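Listing S7. Sequence submitted for prediction.
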Amino acid sequence: MSEEMCDAKIRPMTDGTEIECGFGASDHPEHQGVLKDYAWPGSTTIITWLDDDRRTYRGEWRPCDNADAPGCILPAGHRGRCAR
């Protein structure tokens, strides 16, 4: 029997790299995931972020659809100002 995992994800860079939270599904304000082979081949980088980070999303990636901010790299429905 496998434990259900947290469904939070983040795209911390503009290249589309996606990191999934590796914590269990319980309610928590902080998330953590692993970024592999980014700094150099074979590297492992731990990424920690808060649930209220405007880059946090759940489910399939949907880009920002704010017509007033073309080129926004944040997920649809994000909080705060757009980022390019």
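Caption to Listing S7: primary sequence and predicted structure tokens for the chain studied. DSSP finds no helices and five strands in the chain. The CA atoms of residues 14 and 73 lie 7 Å apart.
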